[in-house]
Design a protein that fits this description.
Blueprint lengths: L10 E3 L3 H29 L8 H29 L2 E3 L4 H13 L1 H24 L4 H29 L1 H7 L14 H30 L4 H45 L14 H30 L1 H9 L6 E14 L2 H7 L2 H21 L3 E6 L2 E6 L8 H19 L5 E17 L2 E7 L1 H13 L6 E4 H6 L2 H4 L2 E7 L8 E6 L3 H19 L1
Parallel strand pairs: 6-8
Antiparallel strand pairs: 1-2, 3-5, 3-6, 4-5, 6-7, 8-10, 9-10
C-alpha cells in the first residue's frame, strides 16, 4: 500500500500586487539612497592618511559595493516577500489572526530584513578594509551601521504608510474596542528620535573623539567632517521626525474631521482603523461611539414613532421620570371608523390591516399638519391631542380645523370608509400614568370623554363631523366663524347637556342641512 497523500498547503501573500510593487520600489529606493549617502560619506570623511594606496582602496570598496547591491537586492526581494506569505489550510479565524499579525508587524518584518543586510554589509566592508587599516575597517563599519540605522528608521515609516489600507482591511469592521498590537506613541516617538537624530549626532561625537585620540586630523578636516555629518543628521532627523509626526497626526486629524461631521448630524461617518498603537484604539473607539449614537438615534426614532416625537423629546430631556401630571388647556379630536367589525368579518386580515394603515396615515398627516399629537390608536379609532405635551397657540382652533380637513380628505381618499369625528376642548390632566416599571403619557379629563361621545353622534350626521360649542367658543375668531351652533342635548354617560356645533355651510343650504343635522343628532342622542 502506498503512503497516504498529504494535502499540499499553498502559500499566498497577504498583500495585494499593487502594494507589493509599491513596497519594492519605495523600500528599494530608500535603501539605495542610504547606500549612496554612506558611500559619499565614506569617501569624504573616512581617514585615509595612513594608507599607502588610497585609490586602490576606493576601487576595491566600489567594486564590493556594486557586487553586494547586485547580490543583496534579490535576497531582500525574496526574503521580504516570504515575510508576508501565509499557508492556507488552517481555520478561518486562525488565518485572520495570522494575516493581521503579518500586516501590523509588516514594517518591522521588512526592517529586520534590511537590518540584517546592512549588518552583513558592514561586516564585509570591515573585512575588506582590515587589509588596509584597522582604524579604516572600524570607521567603515561604524559609518555603514549608522547609515543603515537611519535608513531602516525611515523605511519603517514609509512601509507603515504604504500598508495602511491593508491594515484597515485586516482589522475588520473597525467598530470594536480596538486592541494595542505595537508599542505606544511615546515609545515610538522616542525610538524614532534616537534612530533619526541621536544616531547621526553620535557619529559627530565619535569623529570628535577620534580626532582627540589619534591627533592626526586637522581642524579644517574636522570641521568638514562635523559639517557633513551634521547636515546628514539634520536631513535624516527631519525626515524621520516628520514621518513619525505624520503617523500620529494623520489619524488624529481624520478623527477630528469625522467629529465635525458628527456635530453636523452625519452619523454614518466612520474613520479607517489601521494603527496598532493607542491611535488605533482612538480610531476604533470613535467608530464604536458613532455606532452607539446611530443605535441611540434609531431607538429614539422608534420610540418617537410609538409614543410621538414630542413625548419622546420631553422624556429624553427629563432627568427623572415621575408619575402624575399637570392640568393643561387642551383640545381633543376623536375619530372612529364605522362598521369595522363587519369589515373584519368579510375581508381578509391583510386587506383590513392595509385599509387601517391608509386610514391612520391620513389621520396622522392631518393632525401633524395642525401641530397636534396622536395620543393613541384604539383598534379602528384614534385620539389626537392639541396643546400637550407641547403647548400651542389656539389649540381649540387647530383641533377644529383639523377635524374639518380630516373629514374632507377621508371623503376624497377613502370614500368606502365611513367615520365619525368629534372635537372638544377644556382643561385636562396630561402626564405619565401607570407604574414606574411601565407607564405611558396620556391625557385624562372631561374633554376626552365628550369628544368620544360626539364621535358617536357624528357617525349619523352629514359630513360626519361634530364639535362641542364650548370648543368653538374657545377657538380663535377665524376658525370659530367656520362653525354653526346647533341644539343642546345630553350625551350618553354625561349629566350636563352639550350644545352641538357643525362645520359652517353657505347661506343657501344652511337651513335645510342644519335642520337635518339637528333631527339626526337628536334621534341618535335619544
Amino acid at each position: 500500500m502506498g503512503r497516504p497523500s498529504r494535502t499540499r498547503r499553498v502559500q499566498a501573500s497577504v498583500l495585494d500586487v499593487s502594494v507589493r510593487i509599491t513596497l519594492v520600489l519605495v523600500v528599494g529606493l530608500a535603501n539605495l539612497a542610504g547606500a549612496v549617502v554612506v558611500w559619499l560619506l565614506g569617501v569624504l570623511v573616512l581617514p585615509t592618511g595612513d594608507i599607502a594606496d588610497p585609490d586602490r582602496m576606493r576601487l576595491l570598496n566600489l567594486l564590493l559595493l556594486g557586487a553586494y547591491l547586485i547580490v543583496a537586492a534579490p535576497i531582500a526581494l525574496y526574503w521580504g516577500s516570504r515575510r508576508f506569505r501565509m499557508r492556507s489550510g488552517a481555520d478561518a479565524e486562525a488565518q485572520h489572526r495570522t494575516e493581521r499579525r503579518m500586516v501590523l508587524y509588516g514594517p518591522l518584518r521588512l526592517v529586520t530584513v534590511q537590518g540584517v543586510l546592512w549588518v552583513v554589509g558592514a561586516a564585509l566592508f570591515a573585512a575588506l578594509n582590515l587589509n588596509f587599516s584597522v582604524r579604516l575597517a572600524l570607521s567603515a563599519a561604524e559609518t555603514i551601521l549608522l547609515g543603515g540605522i537611519s535608513t531602516c528608521a525611515l523605511s519603517y515609516l514609509l512601509c507603515e504608510r504604504i500598508l495602511r489600507r491593508t491594515a484597515e482591511r485586516v482589522l475588520g469592521d473597525a467598530t470594536g474596542p480596538g486592541r494595542r498590537f505595537l508599542p505606544g506613541v511615546v515609545t515610538r516617538s522616542l525610538v524614532f528620535w534616537a534612530l533619526g537624530t541621536a544616531v547621526p549626532v553620535s557619529g559627530v561625537l565619535q569623529a570628535s573623539v577620534a580626532a582627540m585620540f589619534y591627533g592626526d586630523i586637522s581642524a579644517a578636516r574636522l570641521a568638514v567632517i562635523v559639517l557633513i555629518v551634521g547636515l546628514i543628521g539634520l536631513a535624516s532627523g527631519v525626515l524621520v521626525t516628520v514621518g513619525a509626526a505624520r503617523a500620529v497626526a494623520d489619524p488624529v486629524n481624520a478623527v477630528r474631521k469625522a467629529m465635525e461631521r458628527v456635530e453636523l448630524g452625519d452619523l454614518e461617518v466612520t474613520v479607517p482603523v489601521y494603527d496598532g498603537t493607542e491611535v488605533g484604539q482612538l480610531q476604533a473607539g470613535f467608530n464604536t461611539m458613532v455606532a452607539g449614537l446611530r443605535e441611540r438615534e434609531r431607538i429614539r426614532d422608534l420610540f418617537g414613532r410609538h409614543v410621538g416625537r414630542d413625548v419622546a423629546r420631553a422624556a429624553a430631556a427629563t432627568a427623572e421620570v415621575r408619575l402624575g401630571g399637570e392640568v393643561r388647556h387642551v383640545a381633543v379630536l376623536f375619530v372612529d371608523m364605522v362598521g369595522s367589525t363587519a369589515l373584519a368579518a368579510h375581508r381578509p386580515p391583510g386587506e383590513v390591516v392595509d385599509l387601517l394603515n391608509r386610514f391612520f396615515g391620513v389621520v396622522i398627516g392631518v393632525v401633524e399638519e395642525h401641530r397636534g399629537w396622536i395620543n393613541k390608536f384604539e383598534g379602528d379609532a384614534a385620539l389626537a391631542i392639541f396643546g400637550a405635551p407641547v403647548a400651542v397657540d389656539d389649540p381649540a382652533g387647530r383641533a377644529l380645523a383639523a377635524a374639518r380637513r380630516l373629514g374632507e380628505r377621508l371623503a376624497l381618499e377613502l370614500p368606502d370608509v365611513d367615520v365619525g369625528i368629534g372635537v372638544s376642548a377644556g382643561d385636562a390632566v396630561a402626564g405619565n400614568v401607570g407604574d414606574p416599571r411601565r407607564f405611558e403619557y396620556t391625557v385624562i379629563g372631561d374633554p376626552v370623554n365628550e369628544a368620544a361621545r360626539l364621535t358617536e353622534l357624528a357617525k349619523a350626521v352629514p359630513g360626519r363631523v361634530l364639535a362641542a360649542a364650548g370648543a368653538v367658543e374657545l377657538a380663535g375668531p377665524g376658525e370659530a366663524a367656520r362653525w354653526t351652533f346647533g341644539d343642546a342635548m345630553t350625551l350618553r354617560g354625561r349629566l350636563e347637556p352639550t350644545r352641538l356645533a357643525f362645520p359652517g355651510m353657505d347661506s343657501a343650504g344652511s337651513g335645510g342641512a342644519m335642520t337635518e343635522n339637528r333631527a339626526i343628532a337628536g334621534e341618535v342622542a335619544g
